[in-house]
Amino acid sequence: LLAAQADTMYVFGPSSHGTHVAGIAGGSGSGQIAYGVAPDAELIFISLKRDAPSLIDGFNYIKDYAESVGKPWVVNMSFGSHLGPHDGTDLKNVAMDNLHGPGRIFVGSAGNNGNNNFHLDRNFNEVSDTLYTVVNFDNGIANSFGQTLSMWGSENSSFKVALRFTDFSNTTIHQTPFYWSNDEPVLIDTLDVNGNEIIIRVTAVSAFETNDKPNIRVEVRNTSNLKTVLVMHSDDSHVHIWNNVRMNNRFTNWGVNLTNNYPNAVGGDHHYGLGEPAGVGKNVITVASYAAEQWNEAGTSFVFGGLSGFSSRGPTVDERTKPDIASTGQNVLSSINSFDESNQTGLLFSFEFEGRTYGFKRLSGTSMSGPMVAGIVALMLEANPNLTAVGAKEILKMTARLDDLTGNIDPNEGHLQWGWGKANALAAVIAAQQFVGIESIQWHERAFTIFPNPTNQSNVQIQLTENLQGRDNLRLFVYDLSGTLIREIQLSGAGQESLELGQIGAGSYLIQLRGVDLLSTFTLIKVD
C-alpha cells in the first residue's frame, strides 16, 4: 500500500473507500477509539475490476489463502451495480453459490438508492400497451458520459426498445429504430438532432446463459435540452428497467429518476433497488443501513436509530425478501487513506507514523453497514468456525433487535427495508457458539417483554407471550456487553416472573431466553 501510494486505484485514483471499509470490519484503531468490529481478524485486500472474472479470481484467492492457513473466512462486498438481472443468477452470484460453505461466508451492502425512483417494471402479459418513461440525466457530475438503461425481461421472452427525443412541447424531433432483444444488436451511433450531438450505445442478448432472460443495455449521452423518452413494447415479457449514471470510464450504481412528464408516460419507483451482486445473492447476507443509536443527554434512553433514507429497498426480481439484516451505516467513524488528498479535511482525530498523518473521519452508506456485519460474522466464525452462510444468516435474523423504529417484523416474511431487524453482535456470537444445528432452532419474535425498560430498579418483570406460558425447560440468561454471563435462572412457565438484577451497573445487557427448540433475545437498559 505504501509503494502504491493508494488503497484503491483502478479508475478511481487515490481514494479512502477501501480503507474506511476495512477499518470498520477489522481495523486496529492504532490505539485510537475507532477500532473495527473484529480487530484481531486477519485482513486480505483484493484489488479488482468490476467484471465477473476479476471478482471470481478474487474470491478464489481468498479461499486458497484461507485454506493454506487453516482459517474460516468472510468476504465483505461494499460495491455493486445495476447491470445484472437482480435475481441471483448473474455469473458473480453463481460463483458465490458454488464457493460458500462451512466457514466460507459472503456479506455485502444493499446499496444506496432508497430515495431514488430509478426503477420501473412492466408485465406486458397483463398490460399490453406500449410503455413510455422519461429518462432523467445527472450531467452535472464531472467525467459523466450520461445514463445507462439496464433492461431485463422474463425467461424465454423478447422485447424491443427505442429512444425518442422531444422538445419542451413534447413534439418528437427524432426517434431511433426499435432494437429487438432477439436480434442481439451491438452498435454505437452518433446522432445529429437539430444540431445537438447525441451518442447511443446498444448491446443485447436474446437469452442470458444462466437464466434464459433477454437483456438490452442502452447507454445514452444527451447534454441538450431535448427530452429523452424510452419507448418499450413486448408481446410476452415482464421487463425491469434501472437508470444509472454512466461515467466515461466505468459504470456506477448511482440511480437517477424515471419520470412521467410525457403523455401516457409512467414514472419510476424505488423498489427492486438492491445492487448486484451483494444485494440479491441467494447465499449472501445483505445489509441495510440505519443511523446508530446514541444516549440522550439525560442518559435514560436512546435517540436516533432510524433507517437511513439512502438504504436500498427490496425485493429481488424473483421476489425474495432482501435485505436480510440492518446495521449502522450512517456517520460511521473509521480510517482514511493518508494518500487521499480529498479526504484530509474534517478529520476527527489523527496520529503520526513515520512522517505521515493517518486520520479518522465519518462517512455514510451501506458500504459502511456491510463491514459492520462482516465483522460480526468474523466473530461468529471465531466462535463456530464451521458455521455456514445459511446458519449465520438465520442466527442474525433470530437474534436481531426490534424497537419502535423497526416496528414488529414478521419472522416469516421479513421487511423490504429493515430485513429482519437490527444486527445484535453479542447475541449473534453467543448463539453461534452454542448452536451447531441452528436450522432446527425456532426464532420467537418478542417471545417475552421486560418492564420497566430502561430501569433503575434492582429487579424487573419478565412477561412471557401466551403461547410459551406453561412450557417447561425455559431458562433466562443475562450477559453484559463483554459476553460474560452474569445471571441465569430457570423459569417456571408462569406468565410473569421477576428477574433479580442485583447491583449491576448502568449499561446495556442482553437477555436471552432459551428452550429445547427456541431462542429469543431482548436488550435491557440499566440506568443510574
What attributes characterize this protein structure?
528 residues, alpha+beta, seven-stranded antiparallel β-sheet, six-stranded antiparallel β-sheet
Give me the secondary-structure topology.
Blueprint: H1 17-26, H2 52-69, E1 73-77, H3 91-99, E2 104-109, E3 119-123, E4 131-135, E5 144-152, E6 160-166, E7 172-175, E8 179-180, E9 186-193, E10 196-205, E11 215-222, E12 227-233, E13 238-247, E14 251-255, E15 258-259, E16 284-291, E17 294-295, E18 302-303, E19 325-330, E20 332-335, E21 349-353, E22 356-363, H4 366-383, H5 389-399, H6 425-434, E23 442-443, E24 448-451, E25 459-464, E26 474-479, E27 485-491, E28 496-500, E29 507-514, E30 518-526
Parallel strand pairs: 1-2, 2-16, 16-19, 23-30
Antiparallel strand pairs: 3-13, 4-12, 4-15, 5-11, 5-13, 6-7, 6-8, 6-12, 9-10, 10-11, 13-14, 17-18, 20-22, 21-22, 24-25, 25-28, 26-27, 26-29, 29-30
Helix pairs in contact: 1-4, 2-3, 4-6, 5-6
* Main pleated-sheet profile: 7 strands, antiparallel
- Helix fraction? 10-25%
The number of helices is: 6
Shape summary: globular
Gyration radius (Cα, Å) is: 25 Å
* Cα distance spanning the termini: 47 Å
Which spans of ≥5 residues are poorly predicted at pLDDT below 50?
none
**Number of β-strand runs:** 30
Q: Strand share of the residues?
A: 25-35%
Structural class assignment: alpha+beta
The chain-level mean pLDDT equals 90
